[in-house]
Write a structure and sequence with these properties.
327 residues; alpha/beta; Rossmann fold; UDP-galactose 4-epimerase, domain 1; 2 domains; seven-stranded parallel sheet; two-stranded parallel sheet; 13 strands; 35% helix
């Protein structure tokens, strides 16, 4: 039996989709707190054992001995979250609780870290545990993820009990179905689609960096189904532990993203407009991200990811442009 936290969220619910649809597996528990009514649709097609509120998980686990793995995707993922006490409880203390439980009960844990831990990328995007102390996240969310990554390294250095397998996945810019509840924090693909559908226009932030023209800010965009493939790889290969990048290894511009949306909505390139960056993102905005995927390749992971055009096409044609957008 698998414990899947964040199972009502975007990545977590798509893990559930993969387990059901790709693997024919339903022996898992979904753990989450619904932040709005829409999230129920993220998992109401799924077959699973039980849904448990996050605050009830500790009691539930106290009597469970048949857990084969913990997939921990649950977190506050808003990069604009400024209440660090909330991040402390949700992204650090809850993760520490799961780590200790997995160590005590000899259960593997796969958890979500984030590319936000890399900050402005000054020290590149290498998933090397020995370089963690160099990183400087740009926001409280990124720091909360970085704190937990570093805390694990301290546990290892002190020879504290550890899970038999642990994998922290540094997700880059994930987009795809079941992100609709994320509102402002949903992907640029989703926002671009909605903007064009409503106003026949896509808005992108102007650049405030002299090295980047408007629309030429660069991200490593990864389709959520591909992000899930990385999780499943570690679920099936429990002899690997460590921090690993979860991106494509290929950075593309926001302009290219908008153009991919326009291709699928029969729009025109001149329907892209540039707007000022919001004040709460100024000084906290990453202009370039690109995952170094060498470490993943070195352990045998085969990169068959969709490129941006392929991912956007699947997202729009099979979800956003249909009567039922949920996976």
């Amino acid at each position: 039996m698998i414990i899947l936290t964040g199972g009502a969220g975007m990545i977590g619910s798509m893990v559930a989709w993969h387990l059901n649809i790709k693997m024919g597996f339903s022996d898992f528990i979904i753990v989450d707190d619904l932040i709005n009514d829409q999230q129920e649709y993220n998992f109401n097609k799924r077959k699973f054992i039980e849904y448990i509120a996050k605050d009830d998980l500790e009691k539930y686990l106290s009597s469970k001995k048949n857990v084969s793995a913990v997939i921990h995707m649950g977190a506050i993922s808003a990069t604009t979250e400024s209440n660090f006490n909330r991040l402390l409880q949700s992204n650090i203390r809850f993760s520490q609780f799961l780590w200790h439980w997995c160590a005590k009960n000899k259960v593997p844990i796969i958890y979500a870290s984030s590319a936000a831990t890399y900050g402005d990328g000054s020290f590149n995007y290498n998933d090397n545990e020995s370089e963690l102390d160099q990183l400087n996240p740009l926001n409280a969310y990124g720091y909360s993820k970085h704190f937990f990554d570093r805390w694990i390294q301290l546990e290892l250095a002190k020879n504290q009990p550890t899970p038999p397998q642990w994998c922290g996945l540094k997700f880059f810019n994930v987009y795809g179905p079941n992100e609709y509840h994320k509102e402002r924090m949903a992907s640029v693909v989703f926002h671009a689609f909605n903007q064009y559908k409503k106003n026949k226009q896509i808005k992108l932030f102007k650049s405030e960096h002299p090295s980047y023209e408007d629309g030429m800010q660069v991200r490593d965009f990864i389709y959520v189904k591909d992000a899930v493939e990385i999780i499943i790889f570690f679920l099936n290969n429990n002899n690997f532990s460590g921090l690993y990048n979860a991106g494509t290894g290929n950075a593309e511009t926001f302009k290219a993203l908008a153009e991919a949306v326009l291709v699928n909505t029969k729009g025109q390139p001149d329907e892209i407009k540039y707007i000022d960056m919001p004040n709460d993102l100024k000084g906290k905005y990453q202009y370039y991200t690109q995952a170094n995927m060498d470490k993943m390749k070195s352990i045998g992971f085969k990169n068959n990811f969709k490129n941006l055009n392929e991912g956007v096409t699947d997202y729009l044609e099979n979800y956003l442009l249909t009567s039922d957008r949920y996976a």
